[in-house]
Amino acid sequence: MSPYNLLPRFKAQYDANNQEFSMSGVVRPQAIDELGPSLALLRDAIGRVRGVLYINVRRLTQMNNAAFHAFSRVIIDACRAIPDLKFVVITSSVVGWTSRKFGRLNGIEPNITVEEYDSKFYPGQGFLEEGGFVPILRTQTKMTWRHERTILPRHGMRPGIAMADICCGIGDFAVLVQKEFQPSRIVALDHSISSLDYARRVMREFDIRGIEYTYGDASEMLLDEAQFDLVTCRHSLQIFNRPELILKELYRICKPGGRVYITNEKNSHCLGEPRAESIRWTYNEVAKLFAHFEMDVELGPKSRRYLIEAGFEDIRVETFMVTNMDGDPQDFADVIVAWADVYAGDMATRRGDGPEFVARFRQGFQDHIFAALHPKGYAGWPIWVASGRRPQ
Amino acid sequence: MLMGSVRNEPAGEPTFEPMIQIDMEIKTFVSAWKHCDYVSTYMAWMISQNRSDSVRHSNLFSSAFNELLEVAFRTRHADGELACRVSRHGATDRIELTIPCVPEERQFYQEAVSQVAGVEAKERYLNSVSGDLAPSREIVLLELAVDYNATLRVEEAESDAIKLVVDLPLEGLQH
Ligand SMILES: C[S@@+](CC[C@H](N)C(=O)[O-])C[C@H]1O[C@@H](n2cnc3c(N)ncnc32)[C@H](O)[C@@H]1O
């Protein structure tokens, strides 16, 4: 495979609604006249805007010094000619050189500032990234794997394929897949540096080979298009306020004829016996709490619609229930303890919930744990699995 | 042997493990500008597979390496072979670029590289960005030091050639 054939070529666009000039792809001209139309578009944009012009370079993967100089000059000249015009350059932490290089412009003209777009990426990011979730993710994956290992082959998993796990978290799904199905290639991408560090440590310690852990933003990946036979994205669409943007990217990197596989929850359907009522109330509240932070943990049953609207065909949907009867009930209880910690702790506090609400909210989790550990009890956590094929 | 007085080879210079080498006729190389892009993209991709974050590493490496190749492209050449070699020691990747060139060009490289090490490197780089002229080859080398923390030195190669050695500590660059 020759990597350069797959790299996106250069494109410049102006969006008047957002006062945003964006550049993407690779631009390495020999002579500046090759950039004529794009430079003209930038000058034209500068002439039209008021206040701020956003320069979006999130997807500008490569730009040589010649081109950088040409665009910078137009911007610097504009700063000098129009003192009340500000430029905000939007970079991505994923494209390593952009923040440093564009950042230098601020030392020349203070009206040019740089913002790294993905440093505060989605509304609930803090809760899920701050270490606390690592143990939950491990136990969750252990419990879901019992089901998914038999489900995955119905959704395109087989030995020898090239696959990607997007929003891979601490990477144990990739490790399990590697052991069980031996794909020829696994790329595992996440936007949490601490999770990736953890994943790489596990890989080194257990001498696992062949998983390519990659730092990246799922909504704008640097991965080339049409590369993977199977693209998985587990428990993650539901935490983005615009899941369709992520799906579009999953579609893009999937080969025509390959499949995209997603798993999501419908939290309000978590259940247990005894104490069913209290449990039901609490998980209804969980859904509302996430909605407050623009995350849809009720997404599971909407998967079919999302996949159809993203252009997939041959859509398959199934559900499974993780219960206290799979393996050790204590595992189930541990997961609930961790949920309670974050949901009734940090998240409820951030929403401004009072002590009375929090007490009742916690009680439902307690009761779910009680049901899980009760010798005659039953506790469940339902998951929706869905996949679709990218048309040929 | 060391030619520029730029950076002395430290006594216990660590060993760099060779990773990949591409040689080609300089005539072939300069027959098309896009060769810079192809070679830098291809080599970046090859040597980044076993980096902890291959996509990001490959992007940074390609970006820096392409600039070097563009400099080599603009050199006034003697006949001969362009050799690109990449080797690695820990977090640092080393690019060795052997460029056939006429004698005046050697002097250019030595001067350019000693400027890079100079104290005002960053100011001079900034001045060039706000200046009128398209970036000169010397500024391009300077930018590698300013934006990628590269260290550069020049070594004598065979007759009519210069060897540019560039160390890139990309794994350590901040996100
Ligand atoms: C709920 S976790 C799911 C992790 C894993 N797939 C699992 O099932 O255990 C969501 C993951 O999405 C990651 N994430 C959040 N925003 C992201 C983004 N913009 N790009 C890539 N990953 C992101 C988080 O770091 C986190 O690891």
Question: Kindly state the mean pLDDT of chain B as a whole number?
Answer: 84
Order of helices and strands of chain B: EHHHEEHHHEE
Q: In angstroms, what separates the terminal alpha carbons of chain B?
A: 36 Å
- The dominant shape of chain B is globular
Domain module tally of chain A: 2
Structural class given helices, strands, pairing of chain A? alpha/beta
The counted number of beta strands of chain B is: 5
Discrete helix count of chain B:
6
Percentage of residues in strands of chain A: 15-25%
Task: List the strand order in the largest sheet of chain B.
Answer: 1-2-3-5-4
Question: With helices defined by DSSP (H or I, 4 residues minimum), what is the helix count of chain A?
Answer: 13
Question: Strand share of the residues of chain B?
Answer: 15-25%
By CATH, the topology of the largest domain in chain A is: Rossmann fold
Give the names of the bound compounds: S-adenosylmethionine
Distance between the amino and carboxyl termini of chain A: 20 Å
Largest sheet of chain B: 5 strands, antiparallel
Contiguous uncertain segments of 5+ residues of chain A: 1-6, 120-127
Short structural description:
With 392 residues, chain A is an alpha/beta fold. Chain A is built from 13 helices and 13 strands.
